[in-house]
């Protein structure tokens, strides 16, 4: 039953992935009594670099009732078991950040502590070979995890690679079918209420006015409402995350798509490789202090799997966040709220997280400060914990061959990062804080993969009375056998969701 204070109209400013994800989720959640309008201009392009995701995207699609195979077909998608990092800790070395766990804990002491002890004796398998995701990924295999928790093939998770433009189109169809009204046009002016300071309406360049109770800013880096109108302010994190530019280009695919993303460290940043059904997405994220735009484009074009399908597309950004994600009656979702470089495929997740918090803390027209404060507390905490995980990749490097890597190895980092590095360095302990998005297996992958090998183990370990080295060997074999029984990634797509 609707009361007199209920939100009667929501205006989403901007389309793209952020706008249409927001529109689709609101249309699914709001059944009556509230008008949802989205304003976008076809003349204004979208960034479109976020084509790789992490597992929570599956929950978002499932909540909307979207069938996985239909979605993968519509977006030329493929499946993702994790990210391979090449040349990050040191040159000529690679490791894998898996979705899922390393085996399954069988003792009071975590499994990785037994691996550390075996590694210190020179008797450990590669850590990568103790996770189901890599066992499948390195063989080019894919099938969904088994439901039987007793089987090693239940110990992994997965996400997707997809064409972000096609995903936005797919969600636009979904949202419009549920009553969302799209308006084509550019915003020329934003009017604030003289008493409350809230956004009252926006005026398009052709003179049309669109009013609303709640405004969602999905206008990208420009932040037309959150910054342009409300002057919310921005925190710059480039002293910790120095890359400030990217250049992106699709190329023809070469062979079957791999079921994982690849990130390759370069002289002044890193290159992504995202395999889709019809092409491969590529980009070079770099620091302009150490590399020119022309040299970045040349490096990217020289390191493609196939022929480039377009001219390189440049992108400039400042890593950081707005001081507030929700200010007055405006919620910033996507790039309007902040930018986290796409190293761990969090761009689309942060859109999803912003939407989830908005639905969980949906306001009425009073816009109780208690509600907005709670939204901002959660959003800021999540953004900063993801920031810490990405900083870890840059800080933990043994590379000294270029200026960027020397800077990163020597830079000061937030205390929250140092705290985790030191706990792991001394005892191999994976301490958590404030509900990190990335759990212990993710931090373990980067610590070990980039050379932060513990000096000792958990003091409880020698008191357990067994080293369980035989279990590690049996686990490695069981994972290999389970992976071999899976279909190839290409065969799975052809059978279930070919575009």
UniProtKB/TrEMBL annotation:
Keywords: FAD, Flavoprotein, Nucleotide-binding. It holds the Pfam family Trp_halogenase. One of its GO terms (molecular function) is monooxygenase activity. InterPro entries: FAD/NAD-bd_sf, Flavin-dep_Halogenase_NPB, Flavin_halogenase, Trp_halogen. It comes from Novosphingobium arvoryzae. This is Tryptophan halogenase. The active site is at residue 80. The lineage of its organism: Bacteria, Pseudomonadati, Pseudomonadota, Alphaproteobacteria, Sphingomonadales. PANTHER family: FAD-BINDING PROTEIN (PTHR43747), FLAVIN-DEPENDENT TRYPTOPHAN HALOGENASE (PTHR43747:SF4).
């Amino acid at each position: 039953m609707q009361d007199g204070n209920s939100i009667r109209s929501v205006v989403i400013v901007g389309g793209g992935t952020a706008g249409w994800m927001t529109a689709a989720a609101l249309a699914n959640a709001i059944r009556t009594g509230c008008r949802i309008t989205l304003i976008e201009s076809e003349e204004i392009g979208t960034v479109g670099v976020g084509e790789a995701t992490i597992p929570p995207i599956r929950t978002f699609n499932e909540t909307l009732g979207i069938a996985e195979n239909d979605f993968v077909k519509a977006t030329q998608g493929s499946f993702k078991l994790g990210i391979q990092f090449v040349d990050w800790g040191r040159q000529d070395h690679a490791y894998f950040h898996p979705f899922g766990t390393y085996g399954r804990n069988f003792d009071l002491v975590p499994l990785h502590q037994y691996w550390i002890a075996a590694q210190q004796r020179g008797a450990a398998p590669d850590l990568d070979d103790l996770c189901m995701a890599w066992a499948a990924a390195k063989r080019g295999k894919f099938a969904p995890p088994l439901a039987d928790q007793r089987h090693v093939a239940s110990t992994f998770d997965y996400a997707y690679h997809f064409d972000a433009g096609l995903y936005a189109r797919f969600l636009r169809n979904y949202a419009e079918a549920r009553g969302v009204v799209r308006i084509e046009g550019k915003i020329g002016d934003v009017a604030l209420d003289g008493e409350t300071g809230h956004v009252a309406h926006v005026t398009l360049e052709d003179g049309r006015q669109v009013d609303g109770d709640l405004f969602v800013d999905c206008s990208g880096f420009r932040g037309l409402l959150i910054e342009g109108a409300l002057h919310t302010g921005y925190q710059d994190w480039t002293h910790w995350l120095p890359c400030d530019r990217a250049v992106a280009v699709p190329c023809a695919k070469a062979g079957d798509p791999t079921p994982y993303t690849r990130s390759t460290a370069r002289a002044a940043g890193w290159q992504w490789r995202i395999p889709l059904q019809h092409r491969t997405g590529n980009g070079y994220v770099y620091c302009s202090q150490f590399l020119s735009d022309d040299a970045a484009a040349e490096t990217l074009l020289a390191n493609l799997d196939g022929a480039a399908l377009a001219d390189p597309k440049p992108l400039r950004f400042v890593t950081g966040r707005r001081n507030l994600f929700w200010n007055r009656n405006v919620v910033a979702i996507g790039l309007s709220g902040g930018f986290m470089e796409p190293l761990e495929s969090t761009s689309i997740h942060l859109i999803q997280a912003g939407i989830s918090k908005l639905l969980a803390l949906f306001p009425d027209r009073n816009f109780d400060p208690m509600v907005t404060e709670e939204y901002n507390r959660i959003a800021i905490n999540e953004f900063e914990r993801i920031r810490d995980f990405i900083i870890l990749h840059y800080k933990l490097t043994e590379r000294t061959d270029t200026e960027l890597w020397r800077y990163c190895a020597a830079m000061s980092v937030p205390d929250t990062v140092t705290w985790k590095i030191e706990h792991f360095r001394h005892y191999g302990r994976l301490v958590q804080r404030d509900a990190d998005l990335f759990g212990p297996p993710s931090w373990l992958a980067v610590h070990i993969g980039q050379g932060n090998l513990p000096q000792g183990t958990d003091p409880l370990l020698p008191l357990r009375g067994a080293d369980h080295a035989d279990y590690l060997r049996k686990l490695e074999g069981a994972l290999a056998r389970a992976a071999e029984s899976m279909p190839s990634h290409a065969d799975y797509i052809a059978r279930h969701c070919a575009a």
